[in-house]
Design goal:
four-stranded antiparallel sheet; 3 domains; alpha+beta; six-stranded mixed sheet
Protein backbone atom coordinates (compact mmCIF):
# COMPACT_ATOMS: atom_id res chain seq x y z
CA UNK A 1 0.00 0.00 0.00
CA UNK A 2 1.44 3.38 -1.06
CA UNK A 3 0.83 5.34 2.14
CA UNK A 4 3.22 8.16 1.18
CA UNK A 5 1.60 8.55 -2.23
CA UNK A 6 -1.87 8.61 -0.70
CA UNK A 7 -0.81 11.26 1.82
CA UNK A 8 0.66 13.38 -0.98
CA UNK A 9 -2.55 13.17 -3.01
CA UNK A 10 -4.54 14.05 0.10
CA UNK A 11 -2.38 17.13 0.71
CA UNK A 12 -2.67 18.24 -2.93
CA UNK A 13 -6.45 17.88 -2.91
CA UNK A 14 -6.69 19.79 0.38
CA UNK A 15 -4.49 22.64 -0.90
CA UNK A 16 -6.59 22.92 -4.06
CA UNK A 17 -9.75 22.98 -1.96
CA UNK A 18 -8.20 25.72 0.17
CA UNK A 19 -7.41 27.71 -2.95
CA UNK A 20 -10.98 27.34 -4.11
CA UNK A 21 -12.27 28.66 -0.80
CA UNK A 22 -9.93 31.67 -0.92
CA UNK A 23 -11.22 32.49 -4.40
CA UNK A 24 -14.84 32.34 -3.25
CA UNK A 25 -14.71 34.91 -0.45
CA UNK A 26 -12.71 38.03 0.39
CA UNK A 27 -11.47 36.97 3.86
CA UNK A 28 -11.44 33.71 5.83
CA UNK A 29 -10.28 33.25 9.40
CA UNK A 30 -7.93 30.39 10.22
CA UNK A 31 -10.49 28.54 12.37
CA UNK A 32 -13.13 28.87 9.59
CA UNK A 33 -10.82 27.28 7.05
CA UNK A 34 -9.73 24.59 9.48
CA UNK A 35 -13.34 23.72 10.19
CA UNK A 36 -14.21 23.58 6.47
CA UNK A 37 -11.27 21.29 5.68
CA UNK A 38 -11.37 19.21 8.84
CA UNK A 39 -7.79 20.00 9.88
CA UNK A 40 -6.01 22.08 12.50
CA UNK A 41 -5.16 25.79 12.14
CA UNK A 42 -1.49 24.74 12.07
CA UNK A 43 -2.17 22.62 8.95
CA UNK A 44 -3.92 25.61 7.38
CA UNK A 45 -0.81 27.71 7.96
CA UNK A 46 1.35 25.05 6.27
CA UNK A 47 -1.05 24.82 3.31
CA UNK A 48 -1.02 28.60 2.95
CA UNK A 49 2.79 28.45 2.72
CA UNK A 50 2.45 25.79 0.02
CA UNK A 51 0.17 28.12 -1.98
CA UNK A 52 2.63 30.98 -1.58
CA UNK A 53 5.42 28.74 -2.88
CA UNK A 54 3.28 28.10 -5.98
CA UNK A 55 2.98 31.83 -6.62
CA UNK A 56 -0.35 32.61 -4.95
CA UNK A 57 -0.15 35.84 -2.90
CA UNK A 58 -2.04 34.80 0.25
CA UNK A 59 -2.06 37.62 2.81
CA UNK A 60 -2.58 37.05 6.52
CA UNK A 61 -4.06 39.71 8.78
CA UNK A 62 -3.75 39.81 12.57
CA UNK A 63 -6.24 40.79 15.26
CA UNK A 64 -9.97 41.46 15.03
CA UNK A 65 -11.12 41.33 11.42
CA UNK A 66 -7.94 39.59 10.40
CA UNK A 67 -7.69 36.42 8.38
CA UNK A 68 -6.44 34.96 5.13
CA UNK A 69 -7.03 36.83 1.87
CA UNK A 70 -6.01 36.00 -1.69
CA UNK A 71 -4.41 39.10 -3.22
CA UNK A 72 -3.09 40.23 -6.57
CA UNK A 73 0.50 39.30 -7.31
CA UNK A 74 3.21 40.32 -9.72
CA UNK A 75 2.78 37.13 -11.77
CA UNK A 76 -0.47 35.43 -12.75
CA UNK A 77 -0.80 32.05 -10.99
CA UNK A 78 -3.19 29.35 -12.19
CA UNK A 79 -6.89 29.83 -11.52
CA UNK A 80 -9.07 27.19 -9.94
CA UNK A 81 -12.48 26.94 -11.61
CA UNK A 82 -15.43 24.65 -10.98
CA UNK A 83 -17.28 23.04 -13.90
CA UNK A 84 -19.81 25.82 -14.39
CA UNK A 85 -17.14 28.54 -14.12
CA UNK A 86 -14.92 26.75 -16.65
CA UNK A 87 -17.72 26.44 -19.21
CA UNK A 88 -18.80 30.06 -18.63
CA UNK A 89 -15.18 31.17 -19.09
CA UNK A 90 -14.92 29.20 -22.32
CA UNK A 91 -18.12 30.77 -23.67
CA UNK A 92 -16.85 34.25 -22.74
CA UNK A 93 -13.53 33.54 -24.44
CA UNK A 94 -15.38 32.47 -27.55
CA UNK A 95 -17.21 35.79 -27.53
CA UNK A 96 -13.83 37.51 -27.04
CA UNK A 97 -12.48 35.67 -30.07
CA UNK A 98 -14.82 37.78 -32.16
CA UNK A 99 -14.67 40.92 -30.05
CA UNK A 100 -14.00 44.44 -31.21
CA UNK A 101 -10.65 44.80 -29.40
CA UNK A 102 -7.66 44.47 -31.74
CA UNK A 103 -5.68 41.31 -31.00
CA UNK A 104 -8.20 39.98 -28.49
CA UNK A 105 -9.33 37.16 -30.78
CA UNK A 106 -5.95 35.42 -30.92
CA UNK A 107 -5.44 35.84 -27.17
CA UNK A 108 -8.88 34.39 -26.45
CA UNK A 109 -8.20 31.33 -28.59
CA UNK A 110 -4.81 30.82 -26.91
CA UNK A 111 -6.55 30.95 -23.54
CA UNK A 112 -9.10 28.40 -24.75
CA UNK A 113 -6.27 26.11 -25.79
CA UNK A 114 -4.68 26.37 -22.33
CA UNK A 115 -7.99 25.59 -20.69
CA UNK A 116 -8.33 22.56 -22.92
CA UNK A 117 -5.02 21.16 -21.69
CA UNK A 118 -5.89 21.21 -17.99
CA UNK A 119 -9.63 20.55 -17.91
CA UNK A 120 -10.92 17.07 -17.06
CA UNK A 121 -12.16 14.91 -19.90
CA UNK A 122 -15.81 15.67 -19.19
CA UNK A 123 -15.16 19.38 -19.89
CA UNK A 124 -12.22 19.29 -22.31
CA UNK A 125 -14.40 18.42 -25.29
CA UNK A 126 -16.55 21.47 -24.64
CA UNK A 127 -13.54 23.77 -24.86
CA UNK A 128 -12.08 21.97 -27.87
CA UNK A 129 -15.37 22.54 -29.65
CA UNK A 130 -14.82 26.24 -29.22
CA UNK A 131 -11.07 26.58 -29.88
CA UNK A 132 -10.83 24.06 -32.72
CA UNK A 133 -13.73 25.22 -34.84
CA UNK A 134 -13.19 28.98 -34.95
CA UNK A 135 -11.22 31.02 -37.47
CA UNK A 136 -11.17 34.76 -38.02
CA UNK A 137 -10.38 37.42 -40.59
CA UNK A 138 -11.51 40.39 -38.51
CA UNK A 139 -13.55 41.13 -35.40
CA UNK A 140 -17.21 40.34 -34.93
CA UNK A 141 -19.67 42.82 -33.45
CA UNK A 142 -23.16 41.43 -34.14
CA UNK A 143 -24.18 39.45 -31.02
CA UNK A 144 -25.27 35.84 -31.41
CA UNK A 145 -26.56 33.23 -28.98
CA UNK A 146 -23.53 31.49 -27.37
CA UNK A 147 -25.50 28.23 -27.27
CA UNK A 148 -25.91 28.40 -31.05
CA UNK A 149 -22.17 28.95 -31.47
CA UNK A 150 -21.39 26.03 -29.16
CA UNK A 151 -23.83 23.75 -30.98
CA UNK A 152 -22.25 24.59 -34.33
CA UNK A 153 -18.73 24.34 -32.93
CA UNK A 154 -19.43 20.88 -31.52
CA UNK A 155 -20.88 19.80 -34.85
CA UNK A 156 -17.70 21.01 -36.59
CA UNK A 157 -15.57 19.12 -34.10
CA UNK A 158 -17.57 15.89 -34.07
CA UNK A 159 -18.13 15.90 -37.86
CA UNK A 160 -21.89 15.45 -37.56
CA UNK A 161 -24.60 17.02 -39.70
CA UNK A 162 -26.34 20.17 -38.53
CA UNK A 163 -29.72 21.62 -39.37
CA UNK A 164 -31.23 25.08 -39.07
CA UNK A 165 -33.91 27.32 -40.52
CA UNK A 166 -32.50 30.02 -42.79
CA UNK A 167 -34.11 32.83 -44.84
CA UNK A 168 -33.56 32.56 -48.59
CA UNK A 169 -35.45 34.08 -51.51
CA UNK A 170 -38.03 35.69 -49.27
CA UNK A 171 -38.89 32.52 -47.33
CA UNK A 172 -37.40 30.52 -44.48
CA UNK A 173 -36.21 27.05 -45.43
CA UNK A 174 -34.66 24.17 -43.50
CA UNK A 175 -31.00 23.64 -44.41
CA UNK A 176 -29.04 20.41 -43.91
CA UNK A 177 -25.28 20.89 -43.87
CA UNK A 178 -21.94 19.30 -43.07
CA UNK A 179 -20.43 22.06 -40.87
CA UNK A 180 -16.73 22.80 -41.31
CA UNK A 181 -15.69 26.05 -39.56
CA UNK A 182 -17.05 29.08 -37.73
CA UNK A 183 -15.55 32.32 -39.05
CA UNK A 184 -15.69 35.77 -37.44
CA UNK A 185 -15.69 38.80 -39.75
CA UNK A 186 -15.50 42.47 -38.84
CA UNK A 187 -19.27 42.52 -38.40
CA UNK A 188 -20.72 39.10 -37.68
CA UNK A 189 -20.27 35.32 -37.36
CA UNK A 190 -20.50 32.92 -40.31
CA UNK A 191 -20.59 29.16 -40.72
CA UNK A 192 -18.76 27.57 -43.63
CA UNK A 193 -20.51 24.30 -44.45
CA UNK A 194 -21.25 21.90 -47.27
CA UNK A 195 -24.91 22.32 -48.20
CA UNK A 196 -26.30 18.81 -48.75
CA UNK A 197 -29.36 19.97 -50.69
CA UNK A 198 -27.38 22.24 -53.04
CA UNK A 199 -24.33 19.94 -53.27
CA UNK A 200 -21.86 22.78 -52.81
CA UNK A 201 -20.02 24.85 -50.21
CA UNK A 202 -21.96 27.75 -48.69
CA UNK A 203 -21.43 30.37 -46.00
CA UNK A 204 -24.27 31.22 -43.60
CA UNK A 205 -24.75 34.13 -41.23
CA UNK A 206 -25.13 32.69 -37.73
CA UNK A 207 -27.35 35.58 -36.56
CA UNK A 208 -29.90 34.63 -39.24
CA UNK A 209 -30.15 30.99 -38.13
CA UNK A 210 -33.06 29.70 -36.02
CA UNK A 211 -33.88 26.30 -34.56
CA UNK A 212 -30.24 25.18 -34.77
CA UNK A 213 -29.52 21.55 -33.95
CA UNK A 214 -26.76 18.99 -34.39
CA UNK A 215 -27.71 15.59 -35.72
CA UNK A 216 -26.39 12.13 -34.89
CA UNK A 217 -25.27 11.28 -38.43
CA UNK A 218 -21.52 11.52 -38.88
CA UNK A 219 -19.94 12.40 -42.22
CA UNK A 220 -16.55 11.93 -43.82
CA UNK A 221 -14.89 15.36 -44.22
CA UNK A 222 -14.55 16.59 -47.80
CA UNK A 223 -11.65 18.56 -49.25
CA UNK A 224 -12.54 22.04 -48.04
CA UNK A 225 -11.53 25.54 -49.13
CA UNK A 226 -9.70 27.84 -46.73
CA UNK A 227 -12.50 28.88 -44.39
CA UNK A 228 -11.57 32.51 -43.70
CA UNK A 229 -10.70 33.22 -47.34
CA UNK A 230 -13.87 31.60 -48.67
CA UNK A 231 -16.15 33.47 -46.29
CA UNK A 232 -14.41 36.79 -46.84
CA UNK A 233 -14.73 36.43 -50.61
CA UNK A 234 -18.39 35.49 -50.21
CA UNK A 235 -19.12 38.49 -48.02
CA UNK A 236 -17.11 40.95 -50.11
CA UNK A 237 -18.11 39.88 -53.63
CA UNK A 238 -20.02 36.65 -54.30
CA UNK A 239 -23.22 37.76 -52.60
CA UNK A 240 -23.53 40.73 -55.00
CA UNK A 241 -24.88 40.65 -58.57
CA UNK A 242 -21.70 42.31 -59.88
CA UNK A 243 -18.08 41.46 -59.06
CA UNK A 244 -15.06 43.50 -60.02
CA UNK A 245 -11.26 43.09 -59.91
CA UNK A 246 -8.74 45.92 -59.89
CA UNK A 247 -4.96 46.14 -59.92
CA UNK A 248 -4.13 48.91 -57.45
CA UNK A 249 -0.71 50.56 -57.53
CA UNK A 250 -0.14 50.55 -53.78
CA UNK A 251 1.14 47.99 -51.22
CA UNK A 252 -1.44 45.49 -50.01
CA UNK A 253 -1.03 46.52 -46.37
CA UNK A 254 -1.75 50.15 -47.29
CA UNK A 255 -4.96 49.24 -49.09
CA UNK A 256 -6.09 46.79 -46.39
CA UNK A 257 -5.87 49.65 -43.89
CA UNK A 258 -8.26 51.65 -46.09
CA UNK A 259 -10.82 48.94 -46.90
CA UNK A 260 -12.87 46.92 -44.36
CA UNK A 261 -12.29 43.17 -44.64
CA UNK A 262 -16.00 42.65 -45.34
CA UNK A 263 -15.96 45.14 -48.24
CA UNK A 264 -13.14 43.76 -50.40
CA UNK A 265 -10.50 41.07 -50.67
CA UNK A 266 -6.98 42.48 -51.06
CA UNK A 267 -4.32 40.17 -52.50
CA UNK A 268 -0.65 41.10 -52.66
CA UNK A 269 0.84 41.41 -56.16
CA UNK A 270 4.47 42.24 -55.52
CA UNK A 271 5.73 44.79 -53.02
CA UNK A 272 4.08 47.86 -54.54
CA UNK A 273 0.84 46.56 -56.07
CA UNK A 274 -2.18 44.54 -55.02
CA UNK A 275 -5.36 43.05 -56.46
CA UNK A 276 -8.67 44.24 -55.03
CA UNK A 277 -11.77 42.08 -55.46
CA UNK A 278 -15.14 43.51 -54.49
CA UNK A 279 -18.81 43.34 -55.34
CA UNK A 280 -21.78 45.68 -55.47
CA UNK A 281 -25.28 46.06 -56.80
CA UNK A 282 -23.98 48.73 -59.19
CA UNK A 283 -20.58 48.76 -60.92
CA UNK A 284 -20.35 52.55 -60.68
CA UNK A 285 -20.58 52.22 -56.91
CA UNK A 286 -17.57 49.91 -56.53
CA UNK A 287 -15.65 51.94 -59.15
CA UNK A 288 -16.07 55.14 -57.14
CA UNK A 289 -14.90 53.41 -53.96
CA UNK A 290 -11.67 52.26 -55.61
CA UNK A 291 -11.20 55.72 -57.15
CA UNK A 292 -11.52 57.35 -53.73
CA UNK A 293 -8.69 55.22 -52.34
CA UNK A 294 -6.39 57.76 -53.98
CA UNK A 295 -4.10 55.32 -55.83
CA UNK A 296 -3.55 54.66 -59.53
CA UNK A 297 -5.37 51.52 -60.60
CA UNK A 298 -6.31 49.36 -63.58
CA UNK A 299 -9.55 47.49 -64.26
CA UNK A 300 -8.98 43.73 -64.60
CA UNK A 301 -12.54 42.46 -64.76
CA UNK A 302 -15.30 42.65 -66.00
CA UNK A 303 -14.65 44.15 -69.45
CA UNK A 304 -17.71 46.42 -69.28
CA UNK A 305 -16.22 48.13 -66.26
CA UNK A 306 -13.61 49.67 -68.55
CA UNK A 307 -16.45 51.26 -70.52
CA UNK A 308 -17.90 52.59 -67.26
CA UNK A 309 -14.51 54.14 -66.45
CA UNK A 310 -14.41 55.99 -69.76
CA UNK A 311 -18.03 57.14 -69.41
CA UNK A 312 -17.37 58.36 -65.87
CA UNK A 313 -14.20 60.17 -66.97
CA UNK A 314 -16.07 61.96 -69.76
CA UNK A 315 -18.81 62.93 -67.33
CA UNK A 316 -16.28 64.36 -64.88
CA UNK A 317 -14.44 66.24 -67.62
CA UNK A 318 -17.72 67.65 -68.87
CA UNK A 319 -18.65 68.76 -65.35
CA UNK A 320 -15.29 70.48 -64.93
CA UNK A 321 -15.46 72.18 -68.35
CA UNK A 322 -18.88 73.66 -67.55
CA UNK A 323 -17.46 75.74 -64.73
CA UNK A 324 -16.50 79.30 -65.77
CA UNK A 325 -12.80 80.11 -65.51
CA UNK A 326 -11.69 82.11 -62.52
CA UNK A 327 -11.11 85.80 -63.38
CA UNK A 328 -7.55 87.08 -63.46
CA UNK A 329 -6.74 89.28 -60.49
CA UNK A 330 -4.34 92.12 -61.20
CA UNK A 331 -1.75 92.81 -58.61
CA UNK A 332 -1.96 96.30 -57.11
Amino acid sequence: MDIAGGAERGTTERVLTLLGLLQQRQVWTGPELADRLGVTPRTIRRDVERLRALGYPVHAGQGVGGGYRLGAGRDLPPLLLDDEEAIATAVSLLAGAGGAVAGAGDAALRALTKLDRVLPTRLRHEVRALSGAVESFGVARTPVDPEVLMTLARACRDEVEAGFDYPSGGEVRRRRVEPYRLVASDRRWYLLAYDLDRDDWRSFRVDRMTDVSARAWRFRPRAAPDAATYVQESVASRVYPHQARFLVHAPADTVRAQVPASAAVVRQRGSERCEVVSGAGNLDFVLMHVLLLGHDFEVLDPPELGERCRALAERLLSAGAAMPPEPDVEES
